[in-house]
């Protein structure tokens, strides 16, 4: 997964507590992670301290960083900056081949051209040194 560094991050800083801290750290290293349960094999995202199926402690599973758009919405009205100056933009739920769905911003495409089922790839944008957030673009 590509990591974009050195750009000024002018959005709210994501909360990097607990499991999310490890997730953001891995993104900054170019790795996309989800959690897998070592007991029941359930794969989940967003990071949690326990498996949502059996309550065991999950382990990290590195993903391929590709997926397909399950559903999306186009944001057309949001006046708060910096988002207001970026309108319109697409937010999508992405089906990963490893199992879970991941939510994120879809970039590099006119929102009118986004389609359910389209192939996308993950990339990360560093929001502070050593921490990055996942975004998606067409393959």
Give me the secondary-structure topology:
Elements lengths: L1 E3 L13 H11 L4 E4 L6 E2 L14 E4 L3 E10 L13 E7 L5 E6 L12 E10 L2 E8 L1
Parallel strand pairs: 1-8
Antiparallel strand pairs: 2-3, 2-4, 5-6, 5-8, 6-7, 8-9
What quaternary form is this?
single chain
Question: Which blocks of ≥5 consecutive residues have pLDDT under 50?
Answer: none
What order do the SSEs take from the amino end to the carboxyl end, as H and E? EHEEEEEEEE
Q: How does the major sheet shape up?
A: 6 strands, mixed
Structural description of this entry:
The protein is mainly beta. The chain has one domain (2-138). Helices cover 8% and strands 39% of the residues. The chain has one helix at residues 18-28; strands at 2-4, 33-36, 43-44, 59-62, 66-75, 89-95, 101-106, 119-128, 131-138. The strands form two sheets. Strands 1, 5, 6, 7, 8 and 9 form a six-stranded mixed beta sheet that branches. The protein is globular. The chain starts with a strand and ends with a strand.
